[in-house]
Amino acid sequence: MIHLTNTRFGNISIEDSAAIEFPRGIIGFSEETQFAILERANGPIAYLQSLRNPKLALPILDASLLKPDYPEGSRMELANTVGTNVDNLAILVVVHVDKTDGSLRANLLAPIVVDSEGRKAWQIILDPEKYSATTMLSGPKDNASPKYSTDNSADMTGTPEATDCAVTNTMDRTNAFGETRDNVTVTSVGLNQ
Predict the structure, then answer these.
(1) Average pLDDT for residues 157-161, to the nearest whole number?
(2) How many CB atoms lie within 10 A of CB 141?
(3) What does DSSP say about strands 46-50 and 34-39: parallel, antiparallel, or unpaired?
(4) How far apart are CA 125 and CA 143, in angstroms?
């Protein structure tokens, strides 16, 4: 069991088997090589939580929710790129809320490709002529049209800062989101394999 204190979700415990190894780290955090996926109770946004740095948790979205299909091309080709079976392939994108217009944006230029069986992941760089690190997923407050949208079944209400991470806990501390979280045990960790 891995125990983290002072995360954005309070104190959490994660089963060792939930760890995902990033042999090369992730862009901007090359020293961070161990993560777990913390899923929320509602909505498609999850968090990629560092198992070394409790303060590092990146909001992520399952790329299978994006329409049109992302990324373009063969999933088999992508699986071969990272050396995994296409049946074990999961693609995640880091998301954020643009502070200037409130739109939900995704880094489609550098997705996270996960071998869900081997519990390894890599952040890869795609063609910068086709993809951006700040692609709009949901329109800004001025109602501009996004380049990508999410599957209609996905509840995009809330933001990456929203509450309801899928955890059980003893609630006696309020975190930065107004949630009371302490001594959290992760009960739902991503890549339902």
Answers:
(1) 39
(2) 9
(3) antiparallel
(4) 30
